[in-house]
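Sample entry copied in:
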Amino acid sequence: MSDIGVIAIGKNEGARLRRCLQSVVGKGWTVVYVDSNSTDGSVALAESMGCAVVQLDLSIPFSAARARNEGLARLVSIDGTAKYVQMVDGDCEIVDGWIERGVSALDAQPKLAVACGRRRERYPEASVYNTLADIEWDSPVGPAQSCGGDAMIRIAALQAVGGYDPSVVAGEEPEMCQRLRAAGWAIERVNQEMTLHDAAMLQFGQWWKRQVRSGYGVTDVSARFGQHGLFVGIARSARNWAIGYPAFVLGVAILSFVIFRPAAAGLVITLTIALLPLQMLRVAWKKRAYGAPAAIAYGVLTMVSKWAFYQGSRQYWNDRAAGKLARQIDYKSAPSPAATATQPVKGDPDWLADLARYPRRPFIKEQSIWAIWWYRFGRRCDRRSGGFAKWIGAKIYWPVHRVIETLTGVSLPKGATIGPGLRVYHFGNIFVHNKATLGANCTLRQGVTIGSRMENGLAPVLEDDVDCGAYAQILGEIRIGKGARIGAMSVVLKDVPAGATAVGIPARIIEAKPASGNTLPGEVPPADSPAH
């Protein structure tokens, strides 16, 4: 028997589980798969690949901690000589070479209980939420306070502290690591790739539930260890921003109108409200190495998550006051973009169509994707029937819209109607009127304005596949037909027929002519165009 065992846990992971098990089977290690009542054939798949399978009895309250404990019990019963166990979630794939590196780290340090490496997101470009998860997992190399779900663990150390606590439904690894450190063991983050994870977070609602789950777990772990807990500061920060910040703004507003004149009071209130966006920028600055778009999104959503954390915290205390068992909060309702070749991807189809027109990792490469992403977020919030997510979305939409508008130079207000597959090339000076309508697969370049010709006037309608050159101005109550092309620096004041090309100031209609690399008259092709 080998000194090494692998325990994978999962439920309905489909192709993700296959990749996970393929990365570890057939290498001389004992592999145990723990299943939580899957209905997609996961058990049969694991058995067919030669894995030992544990099917959890769901009449007993479920937790990932319980799944790992039962997996460890099966591993030890199969191979009592195993010294190390690699824990892995069923949506992760072990990177070649990690198992050996993790074992080497444990062998070199007798008091090292846990070695963990770099977890990476498999599809960071699929959504901003996946991108942020990839950043979140890039923890500092060296001694650590805790690990995540994927980790190489010394079995003797884990058994010495009683394994995972099955009553912890979120944050089971930090809770276990705190007990390990209290017993004199160490945890280390090794400078090595460890796993590829498929977060499959394509919607704001999924991300929000994940943050609520984190808040629930943070509060649970903090409550168990008191002021010596790992997450006391995180829980306090969430409470201060979610409750203290609005209360502070309200208090300042009341006092300002009592003490100052209206103009001065307005300035004081504005400066007070500005504390939140300033903190967003402060957090973003710490992540600037990942590029401005990713850093800004990290800063914005980190602060927005304070309200989700607080919601999770309140759920925990409500459950505890009612004497209820800790609750499971599942955020994975959508499959991976590449989880299966036969099933369609769930999520906002308009947003997925936008992403399809961008290169890989657009959040790092192109600022315009942030404006499109936030526009789609605003539209989804407006479509909600109600609830807390709609309320918080409405509160944060306009402040964040102004920040993104300023940083990217792209103004896409949620009042505009924009079809799927929007592509915006280059940086800045792009303004779309709040009443404008754009069809599917439209293309905008720098300097484009789609607006009205008078105050409170109507805005243009662009049908599908309209291509606008740099600095084109499309103004007034006009219609641009399907497949029309607007030349660079043109000023369009009248309708353009479908398939036609408009050029000049004011624009005149000319016969449509094919152009290499989709380049418009008088325009330099974009950097990623075949004609560049």
Observations:
- The longest strand covers residues 186-197.
- The chain has 16 helices and 24 strands.
- The radius of gyration is 27 Å.
- Residues 292-321 form the longest helix (30 residues).
